[in-house]
Write a structure and sequence with these properties.
The chain is an all-alpha fold and 62 residues long. The chain contains one helix and no strands.
Length: 62
């Protein structure tokens, strides 16, 4: 009987650790995705600025 309790506790602890690890991995993946989105947005903004500067330079010469 005592062995069953110990095994039950071990299983619960292992399950809890597994869930915590899974949650941690999901959070890390979300952070990575957010960082990638931010980088993409920054790149798009830079491209737009460069295009705008190019247009302004062309307009000055015409």
């Amino acid at each position: 009987m005592n062995e069953r309790r110990k095994e039950g506790r071990k299983e619960k602890q292992l399950q809890k650790e597994k869930e915590e690890q899974q949650q941690k991995e999901e959070e890390e993946q979300e952070e990575e995705e957010e960082e990638e989105e931010e980088e993409e947005e920054e790149e798009e903004e830079e491209e737009e600025e460069e295009e705008e500067e190019f247009r302004e330079a062309i307009e000055k010469h015409t």
